[in-house]
């Protein structure tokens, strides 16, 4: 199974802002610990021993804590990390660390933590319970029942006085299929809640609402799931089975069309087809007409008959 390396880059202004908040000793300590995280992270990904991969995945926790315990650590950008994804809530209320390692079976395990934006450390550990969720698309839980993933984007919407955060994640899953998902987070009385019935499918007769959204597709395929800010839509690849008789997610691949969700009345409503542009119109590229071999055959026969009559 391929592992997609997520490199989290921050602007130069953010690095300078973070460095300006710490004295030289604290900054030197942070850089030193971050360098050790890099070494452990590389081993967690590339070592041939499952035991070593697991050990280095978990040994990163105390190192990360040593950095985060330093006052003002929320503003430290971790701009050298390669295998730990760092994703900020759009309003900077918190940020989420996520990382993963592979088992010999080809399956993946995830680790994560939510750091709240405060001068003193407020950290919520995330516990990957994805293997124990019977219907993860319907599950609403706390941090101890997290569907583990590597996050790569976040956006937010308000519903009344509550801010709902949508984190887009990647899960290599197993040797046969890959998953991408949208996790919903919000806070109630200071407690982190994972999942919210925000995804609405009006075309369904039942189970119209989901608490989080998934796509799952063939390991060798590549599929997108992201938020388009210009259209204010969640857009993802429409997936079809390579074998029309198969219902397995591991057989699904993109067919070149897109589905999505449009935000209406405090929820994300399913859109079965996002783009409706017609071929060869406006700015769409011209596409040649398909060859009609039967028509060509008939024309050749007619030409032959005409020649014979002459």
Number of helices: 4
Helix content: 10-25%
As laid out across the biggest beta sheet, the strand order is 10-9-15-14-13-12
Computed structural class: alpha+beta
Q: Could you say how many structural domains there are in total?
A: 1
Give the overall shape, derived from the CA principal axes.
globular
Number of strands: 15
Q: Could you name the ranges where pLDDT drops below 50 across 5 or more consecutive residues?
A: 1-20, 278-289
**Cα-based radius of gyration, to the nearest Å:** 25 Å
In short:
With 310 residues, this protein is α+β, with helices and mostly antiparallel strands.
Secondary-structure blueprint of this entry?
Layout lengths: L11 H9 L3 H23 L3 H19 L16 E4 L5 E9 L5 E9 L6 E5 L22 E10 L2 E10 L5 E12 L2 E4 L4 E2 L8 E2 L2 E6 L6 E4 L4 E9 L10 E13 L2 E5 L21 H17 L1
Parallel strand pairs: 9-15
Antiparallel strand pairs: 1-2, 2-3, 3-4, 5-6, 6-7, 7-8, 7-11, 9-10, 12-13, 13-14, 14-15
Helix pairs in contact: 2-3
Structure description:
The chain has 310 residues and is α+β, with helices and mostly antiparallel strands. It contains four helices and 15 strands. β5 (150-159) and β6 form a beta hairpin. The radius of gyration is 25 Å and the shape is globular. 25% of the residues are buried.
């Amino acid at each position: 199974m391929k592992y997609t390396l997520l490199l989290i880059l921050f602007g130069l202004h953010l690095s300078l802002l973070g460095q300006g908040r710490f004295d030289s000793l604290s900054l030197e300590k942070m850089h030193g610990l971050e360098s050790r995280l890099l070494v452990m992270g590389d081993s967690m990904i590339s070592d041939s021993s499952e035991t070593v991969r697991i050990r280095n995945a978990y040994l990163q926790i105390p190192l990360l804590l040593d950095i985060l315990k330093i006052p003002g650590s929320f503003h430290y950008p971790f701009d050298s990390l390669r295998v730990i994804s760092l994703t900020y809530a759009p309003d900077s209320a918190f940020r989420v660390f996520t990382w993963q390692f592979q088992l010999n079976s080809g399956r993946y395990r995830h680790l994560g933590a939510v750091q709240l934006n405060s001068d003193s450390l407020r950290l919520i550990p995330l516990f990957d319970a994805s293997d124990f969720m019977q219907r993860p698309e319907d599950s609403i839980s706390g941090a101890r029942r997290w569907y583990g993933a590597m996050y790569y984007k976040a956006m937010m919407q308000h519903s009344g006085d509550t801010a709902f955060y949508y984190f887009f994640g990647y899960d290599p899953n197993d040797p046969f299929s890959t998953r991408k998902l949208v996790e919903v987070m919000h806070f109630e009385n200071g407690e982190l809640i994972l999942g919210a019935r925000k995804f609405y499918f009006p075309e369904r007769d039942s189970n119209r609402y989901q608490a989080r959204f998934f796509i799952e597709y063939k390991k060798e395929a590549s599929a997108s799931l992201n938020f388009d800010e210009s259209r204010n839509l969640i857009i993802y690849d429409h997936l079809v089975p390579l074998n029309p008789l198969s219902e397995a997610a591991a057989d699904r691949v993109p067919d070149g069309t897109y589905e999505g969700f449009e935000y209406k009345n405090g929820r994300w409503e399913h859109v079965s087809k996002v783009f409706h542009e017609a071929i060869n119109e406006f700015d769409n590229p011209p596409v040649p007409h398909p060859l009609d071999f039967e028509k060509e055959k008939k024309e050749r026969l007619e030409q032959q008959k005409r020649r014979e009559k002459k």
